[in-house]
Amino acid sequence: QVQLQESGPGLVKPSETLSLTCTVSGDSMNNMYWSWIRRPPGRGLEWIGYISYTGITNYNPSLKSRVTISVDTSKNQFSLKLSSVTAADTAVYYCARGGWSMDCWGQGTLVTVSA
Amino acid sequence: EIVLTQSPGTLSVSPGEGATLSCRASQTVNSNYLAWYQHRPGQAPRLLIYDASSRASGIPDRFSGRGSGTDFTLSISRLEPEDFAVYYCHQYGGSLPYTFGLGTKLEIK
């Protein structure tokens, strides 16, 4: 059974780059798309973007200038980088399998942006 | 951007009864590309329904999705204790960005 686990710093300073990794276990990453989603405190879910196993990406236009999603299938991992963060980027970040409907999610990791 | 409005915000129902949750889109959702997720506190969100009415793998038939265009519903029959959670709808059929509703909290009456 596939499992996803987010990892990365829980605290990031304003103007710096948020970096998270999602490790996929229990299945190959091949032939699939992989997504990042976040939920700011007290708000709804926000789609960040997805990447295919071959590296094709699609991003939320509101974040596109600051987001990079990459994949390393040899390590069974994909990653999120969000640059120039502000307090508004404080959220629980989830990784998930699928580029449209998402059938398996990680438990999420809280990232706080604060000096 | 397609805005998804879920109603009600909170629904109080007794175990054993049924519940119907609504998701209304501000524009037509192409190809009925709409999903429903269940989210229990501290757990990973769980895909229930995709493409408006297809049950995801392992989801019991107590869960059913219906709708097309701009109006969608998730129905849950014979509510069990583990069904009390937050439910989100999600559209992936329009122009970017894909969007989620704010959720409906299903609580025990």
Task: List key phrases describing it.
heterodimer; A: 115 residues; seven-stranded mixed sheet; 50% strand; B: 109 residues; mainly beta; four-stranded antiparallel sheet; 11 strands; 0% helix
Structure description:
The complex is a heterodimer of chains A (115) and B (109). With 115 residues, chain A is mainly beta. Chain A is built from no helices and eleven strands. Chain A has strands at residues 3-7, 11-12, 18-25, 33-39, 46-52, 57-59, 67-72, 77-82, 91-97, 104-105, 109-113. In chain A, strands 2, 4, 5, 6, 9, 10 and 11 form a seven-stranded mixed β-sheet that branches. Chain A is globular and about 40 Å long. The model of chain A has no long low-confidence stretch (mean pLDDT 96). Chain B has 109 residues and is mostly beta strands. Chain B contains no helices and eleven strands. Chain B has strands spanning 4-7, 10-13, 19-25, 34-39, 46-50, 54-55, 63-68, 71-76, 86-91, 99-100, 104-108. In chain B, a hairpin with a 3-residue loop joins strand 5 and strand 6. Chains A and B meet through strand 10 of A and strand 5 and strand 10 of B.
Mean pLDDT of chain B: 95
Low-confidence stretches of chain A: none
Determine the number of helices of chain B (DSSP H or I, runs of at least 4 residues).
Answer: 0
The dominant shape of chain A is globular
Structural classification of chain A? mainly beta
> Could you state the order of secondary-structure elements of chain B as H and E?
EEEEEEEEEEE
Distance between the termini of chain B: 35 Å
As an assembly, this protein is heterodimer
Low-pLDDT sequence parts of chain B: none
Q: What percentage of residues of chain B falls in helices of 4 or more residues?
A: under 10%
Amount of beta strand of chain B: over 45%
User: How much is the radius of gyration of chain A in Å?
Assistant: 13 Å
- Beta percentage of chain A is over 45%
Helix content of chain A: under 10%
User: Biggest sheet of chain A, open or closed, and with what strands and sense?
Assistant: 7 strands, mixed
Q: Shape of chain B, please?
A: globular
Helix tally of chain A?
0
- What can be said about the biggest beta sheet of chain B? 7 strands, mixed
**Would you report the number of β strands of chain A?**
11
Strand element count of chain B:
11
* Structural classification of chain B: mainly beta
